[in-house]
Write a structure and sequence with these properties.
- The protein has 19 helices and 8 strands.
- By secondary structure, the protein is α+β, with helices and mostly antiparallel strands.
- Among the domains are: 1-203, Arfaptin homology (AH) domain/BAR domain (Substrate Binding Domain Of Dnak, Chain:A, Domain 2); 215-311, PH-domain like, CATH 2.30.29; 333-513, Rho GTPase activation protein (Phosphatidylinositol 3-kinase, Chain A, Orthogonal Bundle).
- The strands form 2 sheets. Strands 1-2-3-4-5-6 form a 6-stranded antiparallel beta barrel. Strands 7-8 form a two-stranded antiparallel sheet.
- Helix 2 (26-97) runs antiparallel to helix 4 (145-203).
Length: 718
């Protein structure tokens, strides 16, 4: 299982997302980096799992095997020696008892000396054997329990890691879910626009209209009158809307003819009525260079509409079409009145409506409201506060009006610059550029934009009730307030950046509309690549690596210095606010000198002495477990020197130590502070950490007055 997880982690680490477009949004950057964060998380978990398995061998199995081989094996050797010496002594004693008293005195004395020597050897073997049995019986009480205790500590350290990683993962998960939801909303919005574009492209003729430029070009037939009659000449025409210039290149060059390219300046364009000419798809133009009208014939009805749209063509006066009443509208006084009435109605009776502006009203009701309000006979004579119009109809009518303006509120001219500003990685430049571009809008456009954004800010202030955040409002009003002049797939892919522009306007409304920037002539220049405030992908919050006390036998001062200023999980606590996409937090540098002696431990942190004692215990286990004790001259067993060997040498970077929080795990004994007096209690079912209580020798139980002073000075070996 661990091997499979590690392979999966490697796959996630090497996976690369492919994105369409030249720039990623902040949410797409977070999503692109998410698999690497997942891979690091899985790798860390499996690394800790391998450490736990290694600890099972180093802290539990090997010390128990060493105790069995060295202590119990040594006792068995003592037993064999005792039995051998005993057999030798009793056999010699039997032979000695069968000696005849008639032997010489010297022989009898020599036999007595040999018996005394064997008796001494036998007694010595007996004492060593009995002493060894007593030593094994006594030492196994701690030599067997200590490895199990150390292994359980390692096991719970691994299990505690999952709790700590969960706390690190939750803020990241929430932020990533928000990025995923925003990206899904952008996708839905873009998909709808692309479906409309696909439908329009299927219905529209294949004309050569250059993307991104207000230019149209293609073939047109021109009516030319000759002395012998009328002929139609084919031209390749190019029209530039801003300059109103029409270039006509003849395609049917006759031999000897001196026709060349014509450059004309357009004055007007009017559709030709079908009953006035025997040709279809015709329209008339007037130019400065020629007197009278020029009649042109397009390739189809749809092609004629495109040419007339580019040339701002008009319908014949006598053929007003009532169906075209609301095809296009202008940003005029009636439009401002309509927008203000819609905003007032929404904020009065529907600002807390769930999904406001997202839910769509009936098309029939929307057309009815618009036709009534924009009726040329009595424009604006509609009461939106009455019960005849529901909130969905009003909001849908407002969006329909803004979408059908002849030019969007944020204008075609500034569209490209606004999208480029939203694509910037630098957050300060992004805001500054949009701020400057807002004040480049025409006065009436800027006034309308301020009116709408103020309304959207009011809507977002009730997001708990209506569930509409600035990001959601950006998805709805991005394509409404901004659109490219040409309908292309590339323009559709920029809709997500249009949404970001509107989202920035909502979130920074107060700053942007507090006044123009200092220099409104041009947007601010992007700062160099070393800019401080730049969007960075969100990461899983991880604490700086710190050494585990279970693996170290360092001094109290060093241990205290390493942990100074850290919370129980090594990172700042996570609040209830929405997580921000920041890098991993860095903690303040520990104060030199560590914890002051005699100062009680900080709440939620273990006692440094407990860490030292646990480190010593593990060091003994790692140094070979319980070795045969070396006897001093007085017969007292001398303890071997403790070394601070660690398991950390086997891994490249140690994981921070993990401690339980206040009240988090019931039943786990807490370390006492320096001022607390030791309490003599019977051992609980689950043994507490050995260093957390200083044992009191039995002889002190009769002298309570000495317990408080002696226990603190007592060495850990007692």
């Amino acid at each position: 299982y661990s091997s499979a997880v590690q392979k999966f982690s490697q796959t996630l680490q090497s996976f690369q997302f492919d994105f369409i477009g030249d720039t990623l949004t902040d949410d797409e950057i977070n999503i692109a980096e998410s698999f690497k964060e997942f891979a690091e998380l899985l790798h860390e978990v499996e690394l800790e799992r391998s450490m736990m398995v290694q600890n099972a061998s180093d802290l539990l199995i090997k010390p128990l095997e060493n105790f069995r081989k060295e202590q119990i094996g040594f006792t068995k050797e003592r037993k064999k020696k005792f039995e051998k010496d005993g057999e030798k002594f009793y056999s010699m004693l039997d032979r000695h008892l069968h000696l005849s008293s008639k032997k010489k005195e010297s022989q009898l004395q020599e036999a007595d000396l040999q018996v005394d020597k064997e008796r001494h050897n036998f007694f010595e073997s007996s004492l060593e054997y009995v002493y060894q049995i007593q030593e094994v019986q006594e030492s196994k009480k701690f030599s067997i329990v200590e490895p199990v205790l150390a292994f359980l500590h390692s096991l719970f350290t691994y299990n505690n890691l999952t709790v700590e990683l969960t706390q690190d993962f939750l803020p990241y998960k929430q932020q990533l879910q928000l990025s995923l939801q925003n990206t899904r909303n952008h996708f839905s919005s873009t998909r709808e626009e692309l479906e409309d574009l696909k439908k329009r492209m299927k219905e529209a003729p294949l004309t050569c209209k250059l993307p991104g430029q207000p230019t149209i070009e293609g073939y047109l037939y021109t009516q030319e009158k000759w002395a012998l009659g009328i002929s139609w000449v084919k031209y390749y025409c190019q029209y530039e809307k801003e300059a109103k210039t029409l270039r006509m290149t003849p395609m049917d060059q006759k031999p000897g003819a001196k026709q060349g390219t014509l450059d004309l300046t357009l004055k007007s364009c009017v559709r030709r009525k079908t009953d006035s000419i025997d040709k279809r798809f015709c329209f008339d133009i007037e130019t400065n260079e020629r007197s009278g009208t020029i009649t042109l014939q397009a390739l189809s009805e749809a092609n004629r509409r495109l040419w007339m749209e580019a040339m701002d063509g008009k319908e014949p006066v006598s053929a007003a079409n009532p169906a075209l009443l609301f095809e296009t509208v202008e940003l005029n006084e009636v439009g401002f009145k309509f927008v203000r009435k819609c905003i007032n109605a929404v904020e009065t009776k529907g600002i807390t409506t769930e999904g406001i502006y997202r839910t769509v009203g009936s098309n029939i009701q929307v057309q009815k409201l618009l036709n009534a309000f924009f009726d040329p006979k009595c424009p604006g004579d509609v009461d939106l506060q009455s019960g005849d119009w529901d909130i969905k109809t009003i909001t849908s009518s407002l969006k329909f009006y803004l979408r059908n303006l002849s030019e969007p509120v944020m204008t075609y001219k500034l569209h490209k610059e606004l999208v480029l500003a939203a694509k910037s990685e630098n957050l300060d430049y992004r805001l500054g550029a949009i701020h400057a571009l807002v004040y480049k809008l025409p006065d009436k456009n800027r006034e309308m934009l301020e009116l709408l954004i103020q309304h959207l800010v009011n809507i977002c202030e009730h997001s708990r009730e209506n569930l509409m955040s600035p990001s959601n409002m950006g998805v709805i009003f991005g394509p409404t307030l901004m659109r490219a002049q040409e309908d292309t797939v590339a323009a559709m892919m920029n809709i997500k950046f249009q949404n970001i522009v509107v989202e920035i306007l909502i979130e920074h409304f107060g700053k942007i509309y507090s006044g123009p920037p200092e220099d409104t002539t041009a947007p601010p220049v992007p700062p160099p690549r070393v800019a401080a405030r730049r969007h960075k992908p969100i990461t899983i919050s991880k604490r700086p690596l710190r050494e585990r006390p279970v693996f170290f036998g360092a001094s109290v001062e060093e241990s205290g210095a390493d942990r100074h200023g850290q919370t129980p999980n090594g990172s700042s606590s996570v609040g209830t606010e929405a997580p921000k996409p920041l890098h991993r937090s860095r903690l303040p540098t520990p104060r030199p000198g560590g914890d002051e002696p005699g100062r009680p431990p900080i709440e939620g942190r273990p006692d440094p002495r407990a860490e030292v004692e646990m480190g010593k215990m593990v060091a003994r286990l790692q140094d070979g477990g319980a070795k045969p004790a070396s006897k001093a001259a007085n017969g007292v067993v001398a303890s071997p020197a403790l070394r601070t060997s660690t398991l950390q040498a086997r891994r490249p970077a140690p994981r921070p130590g993990i401690y339980g929080r206040e009240g988090e795990y019931d039943g786990v004994p807490k370390p006492r502070s320096h001022g607390d007096k030791p309490v003599i209690t019977r051992p609980p079912v689950r043994p507490p950490d050995p260093p957390c209580r200083t044992p009191v020798p039995p002889r002190l139980e009769q002298r309570p007055d000495l317990i408080a002073g002696t226990a603190e000075e007592m060495p850990s070996s007692v």
